[in-house]
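Problem 3 from the worked examples.
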Amino acid sequence: MISIKNKFRTGVTALAVGASLLVAPSASAEPVLAVTTGAVFNDPNSTDAAARGRILSHLAGLVDGAEAGSSIRISLYLFHSVYLANKLGDAHKRGVTVQVVVDADSRSTGLETLKTRLADPSGAPGSWVRTCKPEEACLALDPGTTAADPNGTYDNVNHNKFFLFSRTRGKGDVAVDDVVVQGSGNLTSQDTDDWWNDALTVVGNAELFTAYRGYFDDLAAAAVGQIPQVAEYAHDTQAGKAKVYFFPRSGTDTVVNILGTVAPVGTPDSCGGNSPGFGTADGRTRIRIAQGHTTRPDVAKKLWELANAGCDIEIVYRSLDNWTADDKPMGQVANWLTRPVTGKGRITLHQLDNDKRGGSDSHTKYLLIEGTYYGGVNKKIVFTGSHTYTTTALRYNDETLLKYEDATVFDAYVGNFEAQRGAALAGL
């Protein structure tokens, strides 16, 4: 388990208020809509604290703008931020119901501050913090002993990183409903200062919000033993441009199934057929992945099959495969991803920090598909969330994977991918 730094960088900005700001704004001023669908990314290599803390600032704005009588629900692996704990405490104090589910690994001053603030009886009724059982996830069933873990010592966890706001105006004037924020990071200083992370906000999608809320309610109930843990939670919800997948899964590999819909593998150049320049210059499907951990050989094999069918695949990564007790790689994932391909396709790997040489590290878990998907062409699709390409994320953890099909959102993720790839090439 990676050691998480407990301190969180916060700053106080002094605002000089001039006489002109004391004048009432013009009656014709347009109301500001600040909360919209889109992605936010941090930059751990920046010397600017604001750039490193963009996601935290975004979340703080949503909390500040939550209206009395509304609710905030959070499911998170690690909660260390005293800053956001006090923001949530302030929201509770003004009548916002705040409910938080965290993993038992989340032991911090920030979490204790949050518990204290939410226990204030003068705030909204129904606010609380619930914690999973030690060394277990909340909803996902503890695997006990497995072939990979014969002593049953692996701690499966609530690895989720999502935030739900029933109604908030954020930093603007116009309140919006049903706000889902699906992130890749926790509330720790390491997530801002060392690791690349993303947060995708989806606004006004009631069906998506309801699906997340149902999953949250099950996590919260399982945490206190009101419902049993499960080995299978195959609840997929298609909601307009969005589709959400919840975990654990005991059946087929969800990511392999997703990749299997990209192209009919086995026919020559089956990744083709898009408009020229859509994907590659000659219209072949392009897949970009920025993923911290990949240990599932079936995922790597499917990526190789797609490359062999003509797809262009780029991966920014932190580490491939699990490591044995004697520090030797198991190798199956790396073997598939470095295997030669025939035809026009290829796989290109870009490594960031590998836990040994230092530097910034990809903590995002996104998959970008540009081109063919499910029989269509010229698609631009983002898959993001907490789900790493590991067996534990698939089988034993509480996890979420969010699909979103939108060109503007997709292009924002491509920009972030290019920034991570640039950092990898620069060896930062």
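Problem 4, a separate protein:
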Amino acid sequence: MSKKFFSNEDISILFKNKYVKRVSEKGITYTDEFKRLFIAENEKGKFPREIFEECGFDINIIGLKRIQSSGGRWRSAFRRNGVEQLQDTRK
């Protein structure tokens, strides 16, 4: 969990992105579509930061550490069980 908290302005900016499912002051829940797109683009050789920027995310708001940890978590889950592991099963 990142120590960076999002301001109300940051939250409203992030929530406008079509790849954001939920956002709070502490974290972002990305859509399953974005996670699949991230994996596909990353396997083609794109860097995590590049993928986030191309999908309309402001790197200064999210932070590089959060991008790197999300990417690592998704790649690890994908290697374990494929695309099904990327799905958000929380209610």
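Solution to problem 4. The mean pLDDT is 88. The helical segments are 8-15, 32-43, 48-54, 59-62, 64-81.
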